[in-house]
Write a structure and sequence with these properties.
Elements lengths: L1 E6 L4 E6 L8 E7 L6 E3 L11 E5 L9 E2 L3 E2 L4 E6 L4 E7 L11 E7 L5 E7 L7 E5 L5 E9 L1 H5 L9 E6 L26 E9 L6 E10 L2 E4 L5 E4 L5 E2 L3 E2 L8 E9 L1 H5 L9 E6 L11 E2 L6 E9 L5 E10 L2 E4 L5 E4 L2 H6 L1 E7 L14 E8 L17 E5 L20 E2 L15 E8 L6 E8 L24 E4 L4 E9 L4 E2 L2 E6 L13 E2 L10 E8 L3 E8 L5 E10 L2 E8 L8 E9 L2 E9 L2
Parallel strand pairs: 13-19, 13-20, 21-28, 29-35, 34-36
Antiparallel strand pairs: 1-2, 2-3, 4-5, 5-8, 6-7, 8-9, 10-11, 11-12, 13-15, 14-16, 16-17, 16-18, 21-24, 22-25, 23-24, 25-26, 25-27, 29-32, 30-31, 30-33, 33-34, 35-37, 38-39, 39-42, 40-41, 40-43, 43-44
């Protein structure tokens, strides 16, 4: 509840406020420096952005009416519109003297018609009648309409480059605003002078068009090509005296649910048949998320160069379907995947962890035609010591551990893993059978065989104390509910794999290296001979964790250490005797609170030393 006290003698208006009718009024603000006797709020039904307080000012023949807010010299026999938020003058009107004794004219009340188009002002004094005068609102010939579009997300997605692209507004208002034609041209180019990524343009429309409903869209112009918004025409109804349209996102793709899309394309078959040359050709990703442009290049994975990757954050609604294709540029031509477009539907799990892994071979080819590939076996092991559910509750005694995943024979149960989906899960063992090495050590294991043409990227997850039908009911998806990106475990396997082991700890999610890897020699189709070698870490750059793979050609003592650019040792990852074989070591920079920059990792065995560089990017 607010009370405005006009004070002619003390020059100004005092503003009081109280919380309720039982509380006293407290002085909270004031308007100073001028003589006034009345104040009235302007109606908001018409002039929506000008909810001003109109105040009277001075009297003819009396003292100076004052200087409002120490900034505005006022005149007598006038009324002024004050913006209380900024304490600035916004409009005014003046009493028309008609004779009599003007020295005693004192402006009093003012009021407005409900639509704000007419003002009625009254004076007290000896001037000739009428004592009330009528003032009509004066329209300008043309009235501004401000268009606003937020291009931040399009810029993040790579769909809009402010240095080379334009964004314009087009619609059926254009000829009314002075253009030669509607729905065309680049006359109304939106600009971003303050660099806030909100592009605006002010169009002047004749006030005689008030009440007209117009349609419009925003358009990106890139290299002379129009990229229209892919939605129904936007609309607005032209109103007086000014109009600022709401800020919208281009294509209505704004900051809502965002997800990291991680595309992986296996180009091995295209490379082996000579169709794709990694040294000359460029693979790209295109889809409805980037208006099907062909400039989003994919980069080879430093760990396995025939895998090409692209990861980016994309604002998208949960359970949406993404349409896309891979393609590559060769000798000035574009080679697309065969029709139809490929699609991927964001799953419930993807949305929860803000991450979707989308893996395919180019054109979905399955036969490499290079060398024999075999069914392969993965030994899944998970340590259940001190295991807790995703809610942080200890299990107590572990009765059973089950496994589900993305690649047959693994399957995904429905979202909460009800007991009715027991046929979709695989039970692990801790009894020394079916691949379990030591009975009763609380490391649960199982050997699982996969078809030779299975995807080499496998996502999976465990669950403890699954209830079989008839014993209990409820939801048993209990390994991770932390809503982090790495919601599942996943492994990346080479195409020539024979067998490998995964060593997991319950509840620690994300990318996992494999151990005891056995592969087929590409040239001789036999078990591979190992040599002393150190691979490039993956991922690289990384934050905060990365995996380092290396091989040992003969048994011996091995050391793997991390150094900074000053040659100072940061951490020792391995210092032990190793048998011949392939190994992976994972390094996390988070525990040492390391800064971004270049680091070196060194593998040593006897006189053999090899060093590689990696980049930590915070």
């Amino acid at each position: 509840m607010t009370y405005y006290k006009c004070d002619y003698s003390n020059n100004g208006i005092k503003i009081y406020h109280r919380q309720s009718e039982f509380d006293p009024f407290i002085l909270t603000d004031s308007l100073t420096g001028f003589k006034t006797e009345s104040a009235t709020w302007y109606p908001t039904s018409f002039y929506k952005d000008k909810n001003y307080l109109w105040v009277s000012s001075g009297a003819t023949g009396y003292a100076d009416p004052g200087v409002f807010n120490n900034n505005y010299q006022l005149s007598s026999n006038a009324w002024y519109a004050i913006d209380l938020k900024t304490k600035t003058l916004k409009d005014s009107l003046f009493w028309i003297l008609t004779g009599g004794n003007p020295a005693s004219e004192r402006p009093m009340a003012i009021d407005f018609s409900p639509d704000g188009l007419i003002a009625y002002a009254g004076c007290f004094g000896n001037d000739n009648f009428p004592l009330i005068q009528k003032f009509n609102f004066a329209y300008p010939s043309f009235t501004p309409v401000v268009f606003q579009v937020d291009m931040n997300i399009q810029q993040l997605l790579g769909n809009f480059n402010p240095a080379t692209d334009k964004v314009v507004v087009r619609g059926n208002f254009q000829t009314d605003a002075g253009d030669v034609a509607d729905w065309s041209g680049a006359l109304f180019e939106c600009k971003d002078p303050d660099k806030d990524k909100i592009y605006t343009y002010t169009v002047l429309l004749p006030w005689t068009k008030a009440g007209t409903t117009y349609e419009y869209k925003y358009v990106i112009i890139r290299n002379g090509v129009d990229i229209w918004e892919n939605l129904s025409n936007r609309t607005f109804t032209f109103t007086l005296p000014t109009q600022i349209l709401n800020i919208v996102y281009f294509n209505n793709v704004g900051v809502g649910t965002s997800i990291n899309l991680h595309f992986v394309c296996n180009m091995e078959y295209e490379i082996s048949q000579g169709r794709f040359d990694p040294q000359k050709d460029t693979l790209f990703l295109s889809g409805d998320f980037n208006n099907w442009i062909t400039s989003r290049d994919m980069m080879p994975n430093s760990f396995s160069s025939h895998y090409y990757e692209k990861e980016f954050q994309y604002p998208i609604a949960a359970t949406s379907t993404i349409n896309y294709k891979f393609g590559y540029k060769k000798n000035g031509n574009i080679v697309w995947e065969d029709d139809p477009n490929k699609s991927y539907t964001i799953s419930e799990d993807d949305s929860k962890c803000d991450y979707a892994l989308i893996y395919r071979t180019f054109n979905n080819l399955t036969d490499p035609g290079l060398y024999p590939v075999y069914n392969f076996t993965i030994k899944f092991t998970v340590n259940m010591d001190s295991a807790k559910t995703g809610y942080g509750n200890p299990f107590g005694k572990i009765e059973n551990v089950v496994l589900a995943g993305s690649e047959l024979p693994l399957q995904w149960p429905s979202s909460c893993w009800p007991e009715s989906d027991y046929q979709k899960i695989i039970s692990l063992r801790d009894d020394g059978t079916n691949g379990d090495l030591i009975a009763g050590d609380n490391i649960w294991s199982y050997d699982i065989s996969f078809d030779k043409y299975s995807n080499r990227i496998i996502q999976y997850r465990y669950s403890g104390n699954f209830a079989w039908p008839g014993s209990s009911s409820g939801c048993f998806n209990n390994e991770a509910f932390n809503n982090e990106r790495d919601y599942n475990h996943f492994i990346i396997l080479p195409n020539d794999i024979i067998s490998a082991t995964v060593r997991d700890t319950f509840g620690i999610m994300g990318y996992k290296p494999v151990y005891d890897l056995v592969t087929v020699d590409v040239n001789e189709s036999r078990i591979r001979n190992y040599s002393f070698s150190l691979e490039q870490n993956f991922p690289n750059p990384f934050n905060p964790s990365t995996t380092i793979s290396y091989e040992i050609g003969e048994p011996g003592f091995v050391a793997l250490k991390i150094y900074n650019t000053l040659g100072q040792e940061v951490e020792t990852l391995v210092t032990e005797f190793k048998q011949t074989g392939s190994y992976n070591a994972e390094w996390s920079a988070s525990k040492n609170h390391l800064s971004s920059g270049i680091y070196f990792y060194q593998l040593t065995q006897g006189s053999n030393i090899v060093i590689k560089k990696m980049i930590l990017l915070r």
